[in-house]
Amino acid sequence: MAQLLVLTAFAGTEVLPALGFLSHRVRKIAAEPASLVNAPGHDLIFLDARRDLAGAKSLAKILVTTGTSAPIILVVSEGGLAAISSEWGATDIILEGAGPGEIDARIRLAISRATAVEKDDRIHASGVVIDENSYSAKVHGKPLDLTYKEFELLRFLAQHPGRVFTREQLLSEVWGYDYFGGTRTVDVHIRRLRAKLGDLESLIGTVRNVGYRFNLDDQHEMADSI
Questions:
Q1: Which domain holds residue 53?
Q2: Tens digit of each residue's pLDDT (9 = 90 or more) over 8-35
Q3: Nearest CA-CA partner of 39 in 90, 75, 4, 2
Q4: CB atoms within 10 A of CB 17
Q5: 95 backbone dihedrals φ, ψ, rounded to 5°
Q6: Terminus of the chain with fewer CB atoms < 10 Å: N or C?
């Protein structure tokens, strides 16, 4: 049984009438940003987009921007299908007249996919756990106090274990093309990362005269000094 949250601007109507035939626990709140602050716990969100497409799209973007981990299923009318696009950030869509079997199947699939993504968003490497959902990293279970760029640098390297990146490539991938600073900033951030990794500093290796790489488990070498 899943915990479902229904967001609708029309409290007097049933968003998905057939949902009442299922055993899931359903909570309904107003489809407005203020209601999200104290929203009850939930595994999945049904967002009512049957009548107010513009308002629903705005709220969907807010949900995605604020980092909700729950999948979002848009409830739409037949006429509203043409307005739905990837810009909404929704997981799935369903017509308001869908039957219990279809609704239940979409709930199960959406939740299972979200669970799989959450598992994939954690990178494990020799005592280091990088959680992309919470922008946090731990060493042997202890949180690392990383700046945003330090986290992004660690995450990028860990996503490509064994691959060597030049300083210019790291600047482009982590800092972006619009960054005008020199490559020295990469060296500074690498040095800080190694210091914070402590006895696992060798996870970030130096390839002399080339750049840096995230060492594979069987490639732990003492990193050359910068």
A1: 3-120
A2: 999 888 999 999 999 999 999 999 988 8
A3: 4
A4: 14
A5: -75, 145
A6: N
Shortest CA distance to 91 belongs to which of 51, 32, 47? 47
213 and 178 in a common domain: yes
| Residue 85: DSSP 8-state | -
Q: Rounded CA gap, 93 and 75, in Å?
A: 6
pLDDT one-digit tens code per residue, 28-68 = 999 998 888 888 889 999 999 999 999 999 999 998 877 77
Given a cut of 60, whether residue 224 has pLDDT beyond it is: no
pLDDT digits (tens, 9 = 90+) for 106-135: 999 999 887 766 555 677 776 788 887 778
**Which residue type is seen at 165?**
F
| 215 plus 127 within the same structural domain | yes
Asked if residue 224 is part of any domain, the answer here is no
CA pair distance 189, 175, nearest whole angstrom = 11
CB atoms within 10 A of CB 7: 25
In this structure, the answer to whether residues 105 and 152 fall within a common structural domain is: no
Least confident of 6-15, 29-38, 161-170, 211-220: 211-220
Return the pLDDT at 222. Answer: 41
Would you say 34 and 7 are in contact if contact means Cβ atoms under 8 Å apart?
no
The CATH number of the domain where 211 resides is what? 1.10.10.10
CA neighbours closer than 13 Å in the CB half-sphere of residue 184: 2
Number of domains in the chain: 2
The answer to whether residues 197 and 223 touch, using CB atoms and an 8 Å cutoff, is no
CA 46 – CA 202 distance, rounded (Å): 46
